[in-house]
Automatic annotation (TrEMBL):
Family matches, as SUPFAM superfamilies: Nucleoside diphosphate kinase, NDK
Transmembrane segments: none
Pfam families cross-referenced by the UniProt entry: NDK
Principal location listed in the UniProt entry: cytoplasm
Broad EC category: transferase
Function (record text): Major role in the synthesis of nucleoside triphosphates other than ATP. The ATP gamma phosphate is transferred to the NDP beta phosphate via a ping-pong mechanism, using a phosphorylated active-site intermediate.
UniProt-recorded name of the protein: Nucleoside diphosphate kinase
Binding locations of ATP: K20, F68, R96, T102, R113, N123
Compartments (UniProt record): Cytoplasm
Keyword terms of this UniProt record: ATP-binding, Cytoplasm, Kinase, Magnesium, Metal-binding, Nucleotide metabolism, Nucleotide-binding, Phosphoprotein, Transferase
EC number per UniProt: 2.7.4.6
Amino acid sequence: MKKPEFSSMSTIERTLSIIKPDAVAKNVIGQIVSRFEQAGLKVVAARLTQLSRAEAERFYAVHSARPFFKDLVDFMISGPVFVQVLEGENAILKNRDLMGATDPKKAEKGTIRADFADSIDANAVHGSDAPETAAVEVAFFFPQIDVHGR
Ligand code: UDP
């Protein structure tokens, strides 16, 4: 997603971030969380968890018709993931900028995916892409957390 040319005002937002099984296996949870923190995002909830097939299918239901769906689900359940709620100014877009493009080969230098991801399937991180998805995805993993931070 592109940054709008003019952002009318800053907003404190919450967004869901997942450090995917490839990055957890590489032992870089700390390095990735560090990038969020250095960019001014705050971790307000987090846990390491193992997704079941049913959970992964439900989480990625929007992609269920895509050819890569089964491989994506297989990958997401191949090991533990680190799920977090990040909070900060324009957190949704900021997180997406820090992540870089879906395909690490196309991701900008210095982004998480450029530095830690191996391929478009094993691409280190997930991040909500809009306020509506952030609300659904935060509630998916942290039903007790208010996405608006109230
Ligand atoms: N994905 C994949 N193959 C593709 C496109 C996507 O395996 O050709 C996976 C990849 O893990 C990606 C996820 O599906 O992160 C969701 O895709 P989306 O286009 O929403 O990318 P994202 O928002 O994660 O950058």
